[in-house]
Design goal:
CATH topology of the largest domain in chain B: Glutathione S-transferase Yfyf (Class Pi), Chain A, domain 2
Low-confidence stretches of chain A: 1-6, 160-165
Mean pLDDT of chain A: 90
CATH class of the largest domain in chain B: Mainly Alpha
Helix content of chain A: 10-25%
Order of helices and strands of chain A: EEEEEEEEEEEHEEEH
CATH architecture of the largest domain in chain B: Up-down Bundle
Largest sheet of chain B: 4 strands, mixed
Oligomer: heterodimer
Structural class of chain A: alpha+beta
Radius of gyration of chain A: 19 Å
Strand content of chain A: 35-45%
Order of helices and strands of chain B: EHEHEEHHHHHH
CATH superfamily of the largest domain in chain A: Rieske [2Fe-2S] iron-sulphur domain
Low-confidence stretches of chain B: none
Largest sheet of chain A: 6 strands, antiparallel
Strand content of chain B: 5-15%
Distance between the termini of chain B: 29 Å
Strand order of the largest sheet of chain B: 2-1-3-4
Helix content of chain B: 40-55%
Largest interface: A-B, 21 and 17 residues
Strand order of the largest sheet of chain A: 1-10-9-4-3-2
CATH architecture of the largest domain in chain A: 3-layer Sandwich
Number of strands of chain A: 14
Distance between the termini of chain A: 23 Å
Number of strands of chain B: 4
Chain lengths: 227, 206
Amino acid sequence: MTQTQTPRSQWVPVALSKMIEAGTSAGTVVNGAEIVVWRDTAGAAHAWEDRCPHRGMKMSFGFVRGDHITCLYHGWEYDTSGTCRYVPAHPELEVPKSICISRYGTAEAGGMIWAYTPLGTTEQDPPPVLPALEGVRSVYMDASVARVSDTLQQHSSAPAGDDAALCNAITLTLENTVVTIGLQQISDGQCALHIAVPEGTAPVTKEALLDWCEDLRRTVEGLEAAA
Amino acid sequence: MILHNYDLYEDCYRVRLLASCTEQSLELINVNAFPGAEEKTAPYLKLNPLGRLPILEDKDLCLRNLSAILLYVAEQDAQKRFIPKDSAERARMMDWLGFACDDLSVATEARAVALLDAPGDVVALRAKVRQLFRILDDHLTRQSLKGEPYVAGKTPCLADIALFPAFALCRDFNLDHDEFPAARLWARQIRMLSGFITMPGIPDYH
């Protein structure tokens, strides 16, 4: 028994907040679009198109210094507005403001980082409203979001309260704990589940949830392979 | 200690990385492995009939098995900093050292097919490596929950050093890090070890 909000919001969870430490970046994919998720050293999270305008290198291969993210390839540095601020090969150059990387609307809620998709759309709805939650893990599966949702409906216990603000997220009661699962569609056949629980949840419960995650992955991938 | 080395081989890098992190010097003899296949010439086959690198020589010793080389170099470290003293932790370390050197040899193979013209099916090899990295990521997720950020405990061990190159170099055969968030954070910790060095394919964030 689960609730999913339909139609799905354009806010998609792309990582657990705790897994993107200050000063680091990671790559991910939403519906085929490559995204770099990074956190500046002041702690703000950003989700951008994962592509340096210079030579197309993935920005997620690069590195974060202060509030700039730097391309690994030729060291072009971008500020938090996505604007290129420094080109090492031309240190004297005042970089034209037109050199910039497209950004997604970004928010943090429920222990997850959310991006407003697809790229270039104006935000029609506010970011998800979720209580403060603690990330347990992200688990990646070779299965569609629909397959995972169906499997969760068949295998889960009684539902937690209906929260209209939940988007691309499901709440379930597992191990006597309300578990919030952010659903990220990577492609038609791949997705990520970002698992979060109330702060202060006992380690033994979280460990049981790790077993549950691995079992679920095995189950849905088995179903997907058999389909 | 003499290391018969080829800079682009991750197994040679494993030995160089360990020596650097344990503040030991290696005498490097660079072998023209690609495209020369010098390790398969008569003088080298005398050192290692398997025709492979790395080979480690020290006095009367000539080692060619990766685990044996790594364990030897780690034990030559006066502090033995990467060998756990506790027997259970040491056993866990050996377990993951086996994973790094034996199971993950498919990663070495995948990279050799992608970069160095070795024969093989890179798609099938990549799928195998992905399964192994899932096992590593699942394990590191559990370790982190226990408050142990490394594969065998609270501090980095030989197995962590041995595992790092395979994870850091997998983009060479188009396997990305996206799906392995726990391993990504762990790799960042390894990068911050005192004495850490890179090799071509592993960025140096100057």
